[in-house]
Amino acid sequence: MANAGLCWAAPSPIKSWAGGLDDQDPWQVAQKIADRLSAITPISGPDFLIADHGAKPCELISVRAWISHDKQATISSPHPQATDCYAAIATAIQTCHAAGGGRVVVPAGNWYCAGPIVLLSNVHVHLQAGAQIFFSPNPADYARHGDIDCGPNGRLVRSRWQSNDCLNFSPMIYAIGQSNIALTGEDWSSILNGQAGVPFSENGQCWWSYKGNLGNVKRQQATENGLNAQNPDNMKMVAPHLTDEQVQLIQGKDDRWRSDFGYLPALSEAGVPSDRRIFGLGHYLRPPMIQLIDCNAILLQGYQTTNTPFWQHHPVHCSDLAIRHVWVNSMGPNNDGIDPDACVDVLIDACTFNTGDDCIAIKSGKDLDVGYGAAKNIVIQNCTMVSGHGALTLGSEMSGGIENIYAQNLVFENKNWKTSGLNTGIRLKTNMNRGGYLRNLYVRNVSLPNGVSTNAKFYKPLDPAAGLDHVATGAGAIITIDCDYAPQEDNVRNRVPQVSNIFLTGINAGNVATSSGSYSCYQALAIQGPVRRSYNGSALHPLIEPVHDINISNCSFGTPSNDAQPFYVYNASNIRFTDVRIGAEKLNAVVNAPI
Hints:
The protein has 4 helices and 39 strands. The protein is mostly beta strands and 595 residues long.
């Protein structure tokens, strides 16, 4: 099994884990976390029915809408004359909170809400079986009720968008600084519907079109990626303290930084305080469906999310969070399933994912927004990933670091492999901008019955002459460690990522019958350590550590379609294979790939 540039050695006996956890068995540590968080239950108390506060169910009509980034269908949506239940739900929550806590009940039926549901301490919001909340698809309804008046940009809330802090549209479900909160459903007929593919304007705009064109339908309308004239044409207008050299670095060589997608991270790099990073109306940063910030003692359980504007669940700097038995089901652009961001002590248990982006993606801030610290002590177990981009992803926004992650007993089903295959199974994404670190990742007992995509999406280096453009970090590898993810997106690249102490065992992939043969993937593994050419900081000789101490044991990765290079390793050391089968070969070796 030839791989140019690799150094091979026979493996020596090693422990099944390394230090950093007081030398405990990591799975015993994981079990303690899971046991404690499994005991989280909602506060007991009286019921508060939203109907008692003026809520009325609505009639539904048929509308033409997008159901994914490339498909339209006729779906049900509230009648234009539907009663807006925003005030009734808000009053029920406030009354429950003032009474010392209890349960706010959404009965079976269809309910229309033109604004956010804001959770308060000691309140449990419960959707009965057959209850569906249809949130307004109009962005203006999420710039009306926030507690911060931003003038023409609307009344906004403190939020975080792709791990950068800002003031923005409210998420559909929102809480900040609350304790002992719960959002539950009776079963998966209890639905939170963001209606993100339903047009809100005559020209067909919807939440998802803020990302860009949907399908083959092209419109002349602003998006998050296009130049926004609301943003200044020079960073000194908002950050006069910057030197000319700093401005040039942050702005880069063109105007891409003036898109909303580029402007928010530019504000972070410039050190502009988050309360001056004002978006909302006139801007195009879609809010997540559920965002909880600075909260603790949280239960999310037993409901379905669908048609969400952006990430489906985005808890930020939360602790003691249990997410159980949720059907995470939304296929729009950037519809990640669950993205714990700088959270500590989290359990994700028995959830099922069908997503338009990563199923689970662990985050910890981006650029200079690292005040919340690392994401750590997260247990993921008993979940099924029907489809998505990455099944279990770490990053790409991980500037604050990620550590002590435990994932076990997972099925990466890849059910839709014929039409839209799972891009990769376990994926780390970072680069010289996101930096950060990943350490102490433990994964065991993972099944990939249909493998992952057998077609590769290749890495795009900043310098094509580097000769690194053939590695399948975008799609096609079962395990991906990518320390040079999308370097073109980030003008500032002066933070070197560190990746170490990873243990992967019991990962088994099946082949599928493609037109060219029976395969499980394009490459079994794509491990790309930091790429020196991407660094543009001031240090003449920055310390760039290789990815190191990656332990892969008792795995069967099926048959890669790239038989010439079934796995790839760059700038990595001490990659240990123990009883690992790739195609017809079995590996027992230590691999080093110096740059």
